[in-house]
Amino acid sequence: MVTARLDPGGLLTPSLSPYLVLDGSIAHQQLSTILSEHIGFDEFQQLLATDNQPPRLFVGAVDPLNGYPATFTNEGVTLDALLASTALPTLFRAVEINDRPYWDGVFAQNPPIRQFVTTAALPPIDELWIVQLTPQSVDETPTTTEAIADRMAQLVGNLSLQHERVFIEIVSEWAANGYLPEDRFATTTIRTIALPQDKAAASTVDRRRSFVESLFADGRTEAIHLLEQLEIYPHAVETWCLKRVE
């Protein structure tokens, strides 16, 4: 069944449910294959089992039935969890995990960062670095239909991140004022590595190899700037950041 709705420009356009077409299912199958080929899930679980202080990884999604965010961490970070975190409901079907459906975490925690200060097993953090792909600010008021739609999507995508960030800032302020135990909480400095504005909108749809490689190059450049500002290994920082991962 084909339905129609008004797009941001006020035009009536067809809208297809991902449950009525095969494209969404096929795309998720292809993504599943790519993730399986390039991510060592078994090695990750082995690392968790052998390391006394394993890395802490958080993957966000949302349960569309109850509206609550879901955060998968460490042992819960599976192939299905990653697929759930990418399941935009207009493109993909919900991913079932333990008999619950999940959508992309953009609607709840994007990404989940408050867990870095609320998880008891983690030590207090004094630095939090956010790699932000969606621009927080723009230089001009959007006036075209396309620009307005892009900015609306950016604001929605950043809203949950800002909620998470404000939470950490409040906890940090309380810690600085001595309202929280020092062995669990610390004053946290938040730093942001941002994507250049001229590439932000295109980054969600452009899959050309040359464009993706340019994003990697921009990321290395921004990382160098941040580390230079922090004076972290100033003489080795460029070599470290520009090392090509084969």
Automatic annotation (TrEMBL):
This is Patatin-like phospholipase. The lineage of its organism: Archaea, Methanobacteriati, Methanobacteriota, Stenosarchaea group, Halobacteria. Residues 66-116 form the PNPLA domain. InterPro entries: Acyl_Trfase/lysoPLipase, PNPLA_dom. GO terms for biological process: lipid metabolic process. Pfam families: Patatin. SUPFAM superfamilies: FabD/lysophospholipase-like. It comes from the Archaea. Keywords: Lipid metabolism.
